[in-house]
User: What shape does this take?
Amino acid sequence: MRMSDFVVRDSITANLTHANKDAVIREMVDNLRQAGYFPGSEPDDIVRQIMKREHLGSTGIGRGVAIPHTKHTSVDKLVGTVAVSKGGVAFESLDGEPVHVLVMLISPQDRPGDHLRALENVSRRLKVDAFVQQLRSAQSREEIWALLTDQEQRQG
Amino acid sequence: MCQTQRRLFVVSNPSGLHMRPLQAFVERASRFQSNVQVGRKEGEMLNGKSLIHLLGLGAEQGTEIVVEVSGPDADAAIEDLWDVLQKIYDDV
Assistant: This one.
């Protein structure tokens, strides 16, 4: 599985407008809605589920990266989005540092394997500091998409 | 005195080793001085004190993983980490 298999290109943002956790989660879900996902009232419930998961323990995994996620009945395949915050988001991360790169995952209820493979894929990319720095410096959706897909091609 | 402990563990959690069980593992592993490595059987060993590395395991229910601990408190660490791995987390 590659990031381009589940990240919705038109939902990527290089410059989050909000800076607090709740608002950023809502902004990312809204970016997915604007890209054509969740036409009904699902976004409110998805935001609620993601925040519920955050209350069990932050998904800010350190080094400026967070992977907020949930399962949700409205998706039949894994859906993801990527957002970059230039100013940083207070996310109660493991290392206490603000988060600059966020990868959101919304998984179907009955496909734990896909969720694990997405986590595996995201971790493989984001453990490379230089890659995180490149994402943080990206100025546009297209630049982020190019970074995601370029590295995939090099990795084969 | 440096000890080494190595155990094979079969993932029992229905959703596999997702972020929460791995977070609990990393948090516990970090309390020990010993070096902690985790990997799939026959696979690359990953730093057991780093969540970003352990997320690379992608271990579903039934996957065999190896936990290797070496250092002065390895005996205590392996028992403690074993307990953490047994805990069931049923959601994402």
